[in-house]
Amino acid sequence: MITAIICLFFLSSTIALEPVDLWTGRNGTVGPEGQCSCEAFLPGSTFPIRDLEQLEQTTVQISHKLEQEIIKVEMYEGKLTVYMEKVVNLTVLIKIMEDDPDSYSELYIQEVKIQIKQVEALIVELQASIQKSSSVLVILRKEITSIIVELTRLETVYDKNLVLVTRREYIKLQQKLEECERRHNEIFNPNIGSCSHEGILRLSKPIISQLNANLNTGYKYGGWGKDSNPLPGSENMYWYSASTGTVVRYISRYLDYYRLIMRQPMKTYDLYASKDWQGIGNNYIVRSNIFYYQFSNPFSMAKYNLTSQTVEYRVVPMATNRFSYHYSASQNLDFAADEKGLWVMYATEESKGKLVLAKIDEAAFALKEVWQTSVFKPAVGNAFIVCGVLYATRSVDIHTEEIFYTYDTNTRKESYVSIPFEKFQENYVYLDYNPTDQKLYMYNDGYYVSYHLWFKQNNQPNEPKHLIENITD
Asked: On the CB side of 260, how many CA atoms lie within 13 Å of its CA?
């Protein structure tokens, strides 16, 4: 009756990577209902198709969430425009009333008060919505980052072509997230480039982009970020430099964030290729397409022009290489940039290891003003500058870092503060502020990490301030 027996078997979630002999030569068996069963042995290295399908489903879900957040951002932009118009109208009205108070009745004044309260309530509501949206964006970024890390691992182990399609989808999501965050940041923090605030209020959760371009956690010494004063056409450029030790030899430039994540540099510069221009330490920055770093011999500050590929160096008066930051050796010259220009931090024998801050004249490549602080440099995790104010960090525990000290070069006043923030990994060797997006960039045990900053506005407590001060209940 049965002219042929067709043996079917189902591989529940795996497909072999290469042709193998699945059959062992054993005969199949026929069950009581005529079904055929036979044994197949799969190799140990198999591709997780079901997992990849799950990732693709997650892509759709995250994409939907991102679309919702983008819609919210567009709504925030519309609301903000309306609220600003209302504030302007109320301001004009108040000015008219102040110039001619006798022309307005008490009832009319009460009505204006109600309008002010309504606008204030709307602004409080908008602020709460934006803060909630910000938390959602941080969560989405973590989800996308973790999946890209997993896809990168799969790409190196399994069939690259099978992974690449899904990986590209996640890169697109990450680009969309970047755009959403940028627009969100413009609304929540519209005064980028301005110093009309009273310093850092708090930091966001760590935003983990991915493992470094070398795909190696052994590259613990390094840094990454954006140009702090980009040349026209280079506004989206990123850079990266790292090594397994404190020697500085390579720096790579990337056209934009997408190329950084895809590990596709525009150009990689070798500081040792033609001449021995390599440095040491890793508290370097890129500013105006110039790489500022600590020169090895002689011990000095150096600048490598990424356009002309030439080097200049200057010895920093009295600077010593005897005092480094807490987390790593050889971090003797720490370069920083903010809204006010280029800086370098170091210690001297005369200061007995206390941190010294100097402003650099970029044209002359020389120090033009120096400030002495009272904080001991080896007790500091790292330091950065915002609007002429130095911020120093220290470890609280393996998960928490803290901004504990500030020095204001504008007033020559120092203070001890407590602004805790979360670390992705326990140790880090690079932390710098970028004034073009008001973010902190950290190199944390081989990972690209960043933070959004919130600033305390002038004369404002943590809660929203009343719009019109001279009208009372």
From this structure: 25
- Shared domain for 249 and 315, answered yes or no, is yes
* Mean pLDDT of all residues in 175-189: 60
Residue 33 class from Cβ within 10 Å (0-12 exposed, 13-18 middle, 19+ buried)? Answer: exposed
Sign of the torsion angle spanned by Cα atoms 400, 353, 303, 252: negative
> Does residue 401 register a pLDDT over 80?
yes
Confidence of residue 259 (pLDDT cuts 50, 70, 90): confident
* Residue 1: band (very low, low, confident or very high) from pLDDT cuts 50, 70, 90: very low
296/438 same-domain check: yes
Q: What is the pLDDT of residue 20?
A: 40
- Residue finishing a domain among 184, 203, 236: 184
Is 464 a domain residue?
A: no
CA pair distance 387, 427, nearest whole angstrom: 26
120 beta partners: none
Answer yes or no: do 228 and 352 share one domain: yes
Largest CA distance in the chain: 110
Domain count, the chain: 3
User: Is there a domain that residue 99 lies in?
Assistant: yes
Q: How far is CA 411 from CA 82, 399, 406, in A?
A: 38, 33, 12
For residue 469, being part of any structural domain is answered with no
What is the overall mean pLDDT for the chain?
79
76 Cα distance to chain centroid: 23
Q: Same structural domain for residues 381 and 287? A: yes
Q: Is the pLDDT of residue 234 over 50?
A: yes
Judge if 116 and 3 occupy the same domain. Answer: no
Would you say residue 33 has pLDDT above 60? no
pLDDT band at 87 (very low <50, low <70, confident <90, very high): confident
Pick 302 or 79 by higher pLDDT. Answer: 302
Instruction: Kindly state whether residue 466 falls inside one of the protein's structural domains.
Output: no
Centre a 10 Å sphere on the Cβ of residue 395 and count the other Cβ atoms it contains.
Answer: 18
pTM: 0.64
Distance CA 95, CA 97 (A): 5
- CA 428 – CA 425 distance, rounded (Å): 7
Backbone angles phi, psi at 341, to 5 degrees: 135, -150
Does residue 148 sit in the same domain as residue 237? no
Asked which of 144, 159, 184 is the last residue of a domain, the reply is: 184
Rounded to the nearest 10 degrees, the angle between the axes of helix 49-99 and helix 160-188 is 10
State how far the Cα of 322 lies from the Cα of 348, in Å rounded to an integer.
Answer: 8
Is the pLDDT at 80 greater than 60? The verdict is: yes
Shortest CA distance to 197 belongs to which of 465, 454, 467, 463? 454
Domain membership of residue 112 as a residue range: 59-184
